[in-house]
Amino acid sequence: MGGVTESIQRARATTASYSITMRIHAGTDPAVIGALAVKVAESGGITTALDIVDSHPDRLVIDLTCSASNAEHSTEVVDAVETLEGVRVHKVSDRVFLMHLGGKISVESKVNLRNRQDLAMAYTPGVGRVSQALFEHPEDVPKLTIKGNSVAVVTDGSAVLGLGNIGPMAALPVMEGKAALFKRFADIDAWPICIDTTDVDEIVRTVELIAPGFGGINLEDIAAPRCFEIEAKLRERLSIPVFHDDQHGTAIVVLAALKNALRCIDKKLPDARIVVSGGGAAGSAIVQLLLAAGAIDVTVSDRPGLLNKADESLTPAWRELAEKTNPRGLTGTLRDGLQGADVFIGVSAPRILAPEWIDEMADQRIVFALANPDPEVDIYEATQRATVVASGRSDYPNQINNVLAFPGVFRGLLDARATDVTTEMLIKAADAIASVVTDEQLNPNYIIPSVFQPDMSKTVAKAIVDCVPKAPAKSIPMTGAN
Description:
- This is NAD-dependent malic enzyme.
- It holds the Pfam family malic.
- There is one protein chain.
- By secondary structure, the protein is of the alpha/beta class.
- Helices cover 38% and strands 18% of the residues.
- The chain contains 18 helices and 14 strands.
- The protein has helices at 32-42, 71-82, 95-100, 116-122, 126-136, 141-144, 167-186, 200-210, 226-237, 245-264, 281-292, 316-324, 334-338, 355-358, 379-383, 406-415, 423-435, 456-465; strands at residues 15-26, 46-56, 59-68, 87-94, 150-155, 189-194, 216-219, 242-244, 273-277, 297-302, 305-306, 343-346, 366-369, 388-391.
- The strands form 3 sheets. A 6-stranded mixed β-sheet has the order 11-10-9-12-13-14. A 4-stranded antiparallel β-sheet has the order 2-3-1-4.
- Helix 9 (226-237) links the parallel strand 7 (216-219) and strand 8 (242-244).
- Helix 1 (32-42) runs antiparallel to helix 2 (71-82), helix 8 runs parallel beside helix 9 (226-237) and helix 10 crosses helix 11.
- The N and C termini lie far apart (83 Å).
């Protein structure tokens, strides 16, 4: 067997998103197990499981599972293992792809169909009575059908994660994942609706046509500025709530995290100087919600630099942002805007914030570097310079994750039979998330709760329900009953 080196490379920041299992054929030397684990560590990976799945007098069959930081790193780990004498990597399985085989969601019946009697009630002729009742009392459709617990996850595939415009079919795994999160965290039945067009009117009309079967519409991964127009038109035309998670879900969680981060530095939202990098869908929604929640000094940076209403070259979307922000009339670059600022919020692009710029902010500073998968600044470097740091990554504290918001938001919207989404709801949802972190728990490394926090969705849902005027209760019609 190859020798074990004296020093082992410090493991990189790895993630289950790049988790692989190697099927290895090796000799029976007792040292092989330790040598495999050391070789993974030397290459910067982390071994999470090592199992002997078969044994022969002259050969062991071993499954070695480990995590890496990215696809290239995964290959490096495999190559490193293969350098061991007497070891052959027979097959490599990517655990993420294995999870996706056949898709991640399915449809299950809530009722048993065991005999003719069950069939007669669930389907014809019994179902006809229910349909007739709903024809006469359409307000009861949410009570007697899946509409009361269903959400359409709608995309055109034009802005998928950090991948860009990859189209509706390639976007389907992401929409399936969203549906799985709805079910896991709020027991909502969500359906991926991937539309093969980027035309605003066609998307709007398509969603209008399918809306009768759903209690809410979740717009997802639609590029700006189309997403703004699509959401506005659908909210105007539909009598069910329309929620663009990339905008409003992100804004809710950012506001919640920022409120708690400001508690750590003993500063109120109206007193904080905030710089937002990125004036797209997420950035615009964050800015609007911050202002609605009481922020005053907010400046936005994008490709033209600091957005200033005096700049006549701005696009309509940027001009709208500039009119609402930058009360100091700042001009120049992102670095210029950060001078003395309390807060940096990035929803833009990787590596646009030099670590040393953080030193030029206020004495106690907050950095939210939320670009995915690669943040605006190296998170480790940021933690050495800022008082509070948050990111979109799961391998560091304070992950800003939309799943903290959207399941509970829709649970509340569906339970309250809401017809729209209001700014008050978004602020109350943020307050609810922030409140989960108690004074005893709060510290710079814990400003936002885990997505697995018990009753998180119920807490957010209650905040939404409390915003909706209560309608008089009605009994379900029993048409044809004796």
